[in-house]
Amino acid sequence: MMLEQAARQLEALGNPTRLSIYRILVRAGAEGVPVGHIQEKLGIPASTLSHHCKRLIHTGLVSQERHGTTLICRTVYPAMEALLGFLSDECCVDGSLPPGVAMPQTLQDA
Amino acid sequence: MMLEQAARQLEALGNPTRLSIYRILVRAGAEGVPVGHIQEKLGIPASTLSHHCKRLIHTGLVSQERHGTTLICRTVYPAMEALLGFLSDECCVDGSLPPGVAMPQTLQDA
DNA sequence: AAGAAATTTCGAAGAATGTCGAAATAGGGC
DNA sequence: GCCCTATTTCGACATTCTTCGAAATTTCTT
């Protein structure tokens, strides 16, 4: 059930705070970002941040590495690529639309 | 805040049942799929399915069209592309990894 | 207009989330 | 060993999900 895994990761990203964290990490690249820096940028309590980080880590989208007293978070790119791949393959997109698709209609809300 | 919108859509996809629904719709293409057919495939109560469909529709990822007594659901491809675009741009991936990324490490769990 | 078919809306109940402060842990430096 | 910094863990509480049956709605058919 690859779908279960994908759902867990999508759910993890489906929270404004966690998506913000993830974006910060992706943009930081291989260097990674100390938890403390993320906290400064987001301005949220450490306990809340820690909770969200744990959730991201648990799904395999993010990894952590200790450097002295600071914990550095990093995007796990293969995981991200796998997720995007799932959405593109299992669910298509990438230009090769599924059989019968005729360049769809627009719609924006929420 | 494009991020808010993306988070809402990711959250919508971050549920196994809804991701299954979405996958069925994407694979069906422009034809779309009647709610009843989705119910048969998933084998869940109509009220539950209706609830999940509403959620997907509310985020703009899915649209509905009436055909007599049946309601046909369809993927809103532009929305999907926008979401994938957000993940690829705001968060990169597509080969053009962010500054400093050196082809990452592996990691799978959860 | 009556009846049947396809879905949605309406509660309700239990499970899972999101947040936050206080207290506990891990690592380094003196 | 003690203190300081960086984070996590531990409740706790309010909010939002998830599910489902029963009843209401919409539309077509006769």
TrEMBL record, chains A, B:
Pfam short name (any one): HTH_20
PROSITE patterns for this protein: HTH_ARSR_2
GO molecular function, one term: DNA binding
Record domain HTH arsR-type: where: 1-95
Cited SUPFAM superfamilies: Winged helix' DNA-binding domain
Keyword Transcription regulation assigned: yes
InterPro entries: ArsR-like_HTH, HTH_ArsR_DNA-bd_dom, Metal_resp_trans_reg, WH-like_DNA-bd_sf, WH_DNA-bd_sf
Superkingdom in the source lineage: Bacteria
Keywords on record: DNA-binding, Transcription, Transcription regulation
Name of the protein described by the UniProt record: Transcriptional regulator
Native source species: Aquibium carbonis
